[in-house]
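A.,

Following up on our hallway conversation. Structure tokens first:
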């Protein structure tokens, strides 16, 4: 109810900005402020640990673990710049919130290879314009916390093809704050985000893509496990 009612209040601003690509930056800034309001209302604070501080004007393919619906607003709040999220096509059908994935963000079809390829081509265009995108390489929310599921290689192929660096990000604590069961329990507390140093693909060979995938996976999965074991 809180998400829906607050979104409806902001709809007169969101709707025209989301429909106009020239206003997507303003729409994202409003999304950041909306996320900050929701988190403060729900008693959630956020902390950022910079092993690396993202450079202004540099595009990144941001790859993070994905255990909770809170992960998207968490990244919107903590990344110091404009973001587009890449998600499965089914999210377009969500009432109200699906509007984001039809406009500002990107949706990828799991059943239609041609549509998926078209989405990745659009993602490449955004990256070349200096815009960062977020891809959750587990392929969706996983109920395996604190164990990160194996990464799919789509984000890493995109990095190799475009020359854009992967920015690994570990999101810590969201699985505790909001579970993913039929009746998830909301808890007060804090979420933490770790920005790791970027990783570059040296070429487009399958071996390089696999190495990039595994290096990113090990960095994030080990960080998440270390946090869980404290």
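Then the amino acids I'd put at each of the 230 positions:
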């Amino acid at each position: 109810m809180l998400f829906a009612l607050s979104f409806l209040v902001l709809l007169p601003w969101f709707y025209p900005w989301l429909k106009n690509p020239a206003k997507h930056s303003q729409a994202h800034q409003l999304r950041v402020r909306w996320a900050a309001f929701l988190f403060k209302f729900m008693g959630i604070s956020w902390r950022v640990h910079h092993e690396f501080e993202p450079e202004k004007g540099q595009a990144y393919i941001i790859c993070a673990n994905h255990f909770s619906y809170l992960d998207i607003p968490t990244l919107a709040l903590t990344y110091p710049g404009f973001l587009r999220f890449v998600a499965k096509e089914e999210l377009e059908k969500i009432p109200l919130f699906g509007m984001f994935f039809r406009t500002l963000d990107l949706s990828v079809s799991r059943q239609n290879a041609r549509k998926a390829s078209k989405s990745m081509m659009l993602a490449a265009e955004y990256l070349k314009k200096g815009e960062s995108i977020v891809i959750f390489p587990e392929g969706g929310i996983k109920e395996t916390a604190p164990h990160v599921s194996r990464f799919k290689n789509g984000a890493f192929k995109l990095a190799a093809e475009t020359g854009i660096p992967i920015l690994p990000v570990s999101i810590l604590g969201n699985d505790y704050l909001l579970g993913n069961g039929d009746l998830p329990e909301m808890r007060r507390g804090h979420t933490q985000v770790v920005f790791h140093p970027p990783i570059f693909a040296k070429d487009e060979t399958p071996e390089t893509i696999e190495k990039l995938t595994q290096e990113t996976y090990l960095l994030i999965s080990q960080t998440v496990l270390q946090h869980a074991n404290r």
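The mean pLDDT is 92. Curious whether your intuition agrees with the design.

B.
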